[in-house]
Amino acid sequence: MKNFLILFVLLSTSFCYAQDSVYTRKMVNTLSSKEFWGRGYTKDGMKKAADFLAAEYKKLGLIPFSDSYKQDFNFPVNTFPGKMMVQINGKKLIPGKDFIVSNESPGIKQKATLIPIDSLNYQASPFLKVSLKDKLTWSVGTEVGNNTQIQINKKNFTETPKEINVEIENKFIENFKASNVCGLLKGTKYPDSILIITAHYDHLGGMGKDTYFPGANDNAAGIATLLSLAKYYATNPPPFSVGFICFAAEEAGLLGSRYYTQNPLSPLSNIKFLINLDLVGTGEAGMTVVNATVYPKAFSLLNEINDEHKYISKINPRGKAANSDHYFFSEKGVLAFFIYTQGGPTAYHDVFDKPETLPLTEYNDLFKLIVNFNKKIME
């Protein structure tokens, strides 16, 4: 009977983690889908994602930090909701795959001859420039520049650019409304002792009316892992409270997390530790911890747990860096790690960061490592 109970417990634990993997994959697929349009600034992509996350919090049993799951704020952003047409030498290029428009570009409609500046850069006029790139990487612009810049994937276009025909529409939104999505599970014994898990849910949105950036690894994977942890803690209540914050506008310059730390919904002093998850959909080559050298005792504890259970092949230490949403918390004195995985697909800030090619290689091991670390760090 004793052996049967041990086997039952082991099978139950494995089943729990397997179920989490299924749930996580579902969340990655959903958030990266066309419905959410890159969780950005056109077709209500970011708002739809925020609404979805708030509903998921409620379904999992999380309560709001305050009156609402959402913490609203505003910021300026340059968007491209309409026409996105570029022809070079009479050949129509595909947005996202053959070309991108620099994020601060104004709209333009022009036919012109391209004058070479050098072998990689061309100019049609003072207001229109073209460059050839090995890789097309997009980002978010919060202002509008003086000229339109087109970047062309030189692997897909091998001719010498001589003529351009372009029609691009932009729309500058001075006060774009976004929302951090915040939920809480109160601790069974120490409700004022809070562990915070964060991830940004926004991505790059769309470029034109037909092209969007799925953002599977960046950062649907982080959000899916956060939701899986919320699901786990909702059914396994810890003595300490666990807060979950899905940030908006990380891609626009960490604006959501900066706003939260300036307007916290609960005292920052109550946060005992914060774990930020961003780009966690791989893991073949291990993972990296930002702030590892800032908090060596916590990093040593993480490694002790990992060495004992052989979860992740390698954990690389990194120092302080303003490269994700942990940063402004650290600046306010909150102990925080930013975790990202390495290896696997290299798609980043492009249209190829898709759920069907994201392996989630080390999801189960990363999940177990985080749960075990949280238990130890909050003791």
Automatic annotation (TrEMBL):
Top-rank lineage group of the source organism? Bacteria
Protease listed as a keyword? yes
| Extent of the signal sequence | 1-18
Q: Which Pfam families match?
A: Peptidase_M28
Q: Where is the Peptidase M28 domain?
A: 180-372
Alphabetical UniProt keywords = Aminopeptidase, Hydrolase, Protease, Signal
GO MF terms held by the record: aminopeptidase activity; metalloexopeptidase activity
Give GO terms for biological process. Answer: proteolysis
Record protein name field = Aminopeptidase
Annotated organism of origin: Pedobacter chinensis
> Which taxonomic lineage does the organism of this UniProt entry have?
Bacteria, Pseudomonadati, Bacteroidota, Sphingobacteriia, Sphingobacteriales
